């Protein structure tokens, strides 16, 4: 139970770090271009794509962490009552982890589109 909750906390922290890292890279990218980046619409669009990628990764990571934390507690409760339900219980925990992967995939697609 502790190891599964630890995975949820790690996914939560990865989501927060992704948000902060992409916000920081947007600030650095805007500072690098100077006045030309403000006047150029592609620089603004690129900055917004970084913010969108950060939000998709961060929010999906936070949601995945919450899902894994709650799902693992319920799965362990179900396993104590019926040990044969391990396969069904682990599927719900894996679905929670899948949310974070989908968020990362969407951010990769956002960054490669521009």
Notes on the structure:
The protein is an all-alpha fold and about 110 residues long. It has a single domain, classed as Up-down Bundle (Four Helix Bundle (Hemerythrin (Met), subunit A)). About 95% of the residues lie in helices and about 0% in strands. Helix 1 (about 1-35) packs antiparallel against helix 3 (about 40-80) and helix 3 packs antiparallel against helix 4 (about 85-114). It is elongated and about 55 Å long. The mean pLDDT is about 75.
What topology does this entry show?
Blueprint: H1 2-33, H2 35-39, H3 41-81, H4 86-113
Helix pairs in contact: 1-3, 3-4
Q: Which descriptors apply to this entry?
A:
Four Helix Bundle (Hemerythrin (Met), subunit A), elongated, 4 helices, mainly alpha, 114 residues
* CATH class category label: Mainly Alpha
Number of discrete domains: 1
Structural class: mainly alpha
Separation of the first and last Cα atoms:
42 Å
Task: Choose one word for the global shape.
Answer: elongated
Uncertain segments are: none
CATH topological fold name: Four Helix Bundle (Hemerythrin (Met), subunit A)
Into which percentage range does the β-strand content fall? Answer: under 5%
Helix content: over 70%
């Amino acid at each position: 139970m502790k190891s599964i909750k630890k995975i949820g906390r790690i996914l939560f922290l990865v989501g927060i770090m992704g948000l902060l890292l992409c916000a920081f890279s947007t600030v650095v990218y805007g500072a690098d271009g100077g006045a030309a980046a403000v006047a150029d619409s592609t620089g603004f669009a690129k900055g917004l794509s970084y913010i969108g990628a950060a939000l998709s990764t961060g929010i999906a990571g936070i949601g995945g962490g919450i899902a894994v934390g709650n799902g693992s507690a319920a799965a362990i409760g179900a396993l104590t009552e019926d040990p044969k339900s391990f396969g069904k219980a682990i599927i719900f925990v894996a679905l929670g982890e899948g949310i974070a992967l989908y968020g990362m995939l969407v951010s990769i697609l956002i960054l490669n589109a521009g």
